[in-house]
Design brief:
The complex is a heterodimer.
Chain A (H helix, E strand, L loop, with lengths): L2 E10 L3 H14 L6 H22 L6 E9 L2 E8 L7 H4 L16 H8 L2 E7 L3 E9 L11
Antiparallel strand pairs in A: 1-2, 2-3, 3-5, 4-5
Chain B lengths: L1 E6 L3 E10 L1 H15 L6 E5 L3 E4 L1 H16 L3 E5 L3 H10 L10
Parallel strand pairs in B: 2-3, 2-4, 3-5
Antiparallel strand pairs in B: 1-2
The chains are: A alpha+beta, B alpha/beta.
């Protein structure tokens, strides 16, 4: 797998930045020539992770979200991190339909969507310190799939 | 996100256009609930042709609307899902509670 590019983005945890973050990461991936579906999957997974930082990590209070990504010709590796409240039980948080805020009509599907749309999803969280979500997406065309030009 | 409402005799068609996420959810919820609160409606159709993005917050919004309408015996369907909408609908099994119609 050949290295193409890397990025670091630090943004305030506000909901308007969900759209900014997923759009930025999508643009960052373009040089690897992913399919439209792969780009949409990445946008959705990034949106889930960033929304979690805003809604759960910082509970709509001030804080920063840090996004680090490395782009290869055949994959994207991305980490989305907050320094918010953290998750006591990550296994429980990853269960489909699990939500700490049912009164807000939240689906509890955030981690399920990330797992469905990305190839690898890992969560590292410490209560009181924050949460980092690390994800990887492989591109179907990827390495060696270019024409012989 | 833009929401356009088309009034039929007993049916409302609601066009969801743009991006449905955490940032746009509250306004979308309020607009849809306001439009569907009038009496005499027996069916609601969400037209998703212009829905360019939707994540799990959007799933929550749509399931919430489904529950409210179902409590009033109003049938909810969707039509013309964009590819982005279709992918998340299939993943979340949403077509089982709000079927796709032509």
């Amino acid at each position: 797998m050949n290295f193409l590019n890397e990025m670091y983005l630090k943004i305030p945890a506000v909901s308007v930045n969900e759209s900014f973050a997923r759009g930025t990461v999508a643009a960052f991936c373009v040089s690897a020539n992913p399919t439209l579906e792969e780009i949409n999957d990445i946008k959705t997974a990034v949106s889930e992770a960033v929304t979690n930082c805003v809604v759960h990590g910082y509970r709509n209070k001030n804080g920063d979200i840090e996004i680090r990504a490395v782009l290869y010709d055949a994959a994207l590796e991305i980490e989305i991190k907050d320094r918010g409240v953290g998750i006591e039980n990550t296994q429980e948080a990853m269960q489909p339909f699990f939500t700490t805020k049912p009164e807000e009509e939240r689906s509890g599907m955030g981690f399920t969507v990330m797992q469905a749309f990305m190839d690898e999803v890992d969560i590292v969280s410490s209560p009181g310190k924050g949460t980092a979500v690390r994800m990887k997406k492989y591109f179907a065309a990827g390495e060696g799939a270019e024409s012989d030009a | 996100m833009q929401i356009r409402i088309q009034h039929g005799k007993h049916t409302l068609t609601i066009y969801l256009q743009g991006e449905l996420d955490e940032c746009t959810a509250e306004a979308a919820r309020a607009k849809i609930d306001d439009a569907t609160s009038q009496p005499g409606i027996s069916g609601v159709i969400f037209d998703l042709s212009g829905l360019t993005f939707m994540d799990s917050t959007g799933i929550g919004v749509l399931i919430g609307r489904y529950k409210r309408l179902k409590a009033r015996n109003i049938v909810l369907c969707v039509r013309n899902p964009s590819s982005a909408a279709d992918r998340i609908f299939k993943m979340a099994g949403l077509y089982e509670i709000m079927p796709k119609v032509k």
